[in-house]
Amino acid sequence: MKANQTLGASGFAILALLAPFLNAQESTSPLSAHSSSAEMKKLVAIIRPIGNSNVRGSVVFDKVDDGILINAKIGGLTPNAHHAIHIHEFGDLGSEDASSAGDHFNPGDHSHAIPDESERHAGDLGNLQADGDGNAVLTLVVNNITLDAGKRGIIGRAVIVHAKADDGGQPSGNAGDRIAAGVIGISKDARPEPAPPTPKPPGEGKPAEPEQKETRPTTPDTDVSVDE
To answer: Where is the signal peptide (predicted)?
Structure first.
């Protein structure tokens, strides 16, 4: 019994010693800011082919003053064609056709629409316009998603590129098969910035002035002889 009590006390002592180091690691990790109340500053989805397609690229989400800036750069598309691009509910790409990613992300329970409409699925990003080489760039700013894990958060969800154009029809734009996809994750550039140094009180940190020692006048030794 005494051995168990000693072991328990030692365990608590070890945890107490390790606590400052564990807290320091947690505060410097980008995942420490990943919560429903802490929004990241940048997310990214790396787009890879589904099935026999050759579609690849990236979609970057940046937090800006007006909302969320989306920059998509996609290649391998059908030349001179439109391809729908959407955010879907889940980051589960385990199925061969990416159907496991679910439907369009729609936390507001709106009908499907193109980005020009104020009421639409939060995942409705419109269309990519491929050039003659099958490359497309899409840039837009939206204000109906957030870069966190909250109700409107997109972290851990999926970006899907479709075979056809999104025509705005119901229920999901008649966009055809899913030909490429990527899970939205934390960008390496989203690491929390180091906190600014705490200002020191006036005078703190200055080199200490040498101690002033009190000096007394010295009296020369006097040879005093006494006559007997």
So the answer is: 1-24
| Residues whose CB is less than 8 angstroms from the CB of residue 223 and which lie 6 or more positions away in sequence, other chains included | none
How many domains does one find in the chain? 1
User: Is 61 a domain residue?
Assistant: yes
Q: What's 132's domain CATH number?
A: 2.60.40.200
User: What pTM, to 2 d.p., does this model score?
Assistant: 0.69
Residue-number span of the structural domain to which 114 is assigned: 33-190
DSSP-assigned beta bridge partners for residue 178: 162
Please check whether residue 201 lies inside any domain of the structure: no
In 3D space, the residue among 90, 84, 54, 89 whose CA is nearest the CA of residue 72 turns out to be: 84
Q: How far does CA 140 lie from the centroid of its chain?
A: 19
Side chain identity, residue 171: P
Model confidence band, residue 192 (pLDDT cutoffs 50, 70, 90): low
Q: Is residue 10 part of a domain?
A: no
pLDDT bracket for residue 156 (50, 70, 90): very high
What confidence tens digit (pLDDT) does each residue in 65-99 have? 999 999 999 999 999 999 999 999 999 999 999 99
Phi/psi of residue 45, each to 5°? -120, 125
Q: Is the peptide bond before 199 cis (omega within 30 degrees of 0)?
A: no
Partners of 61 in the beta sheet?
A: 43, 70
DSSP-based three-state secondary structure for 32: helix
The answer as to whether 211 is a domain residue is: no
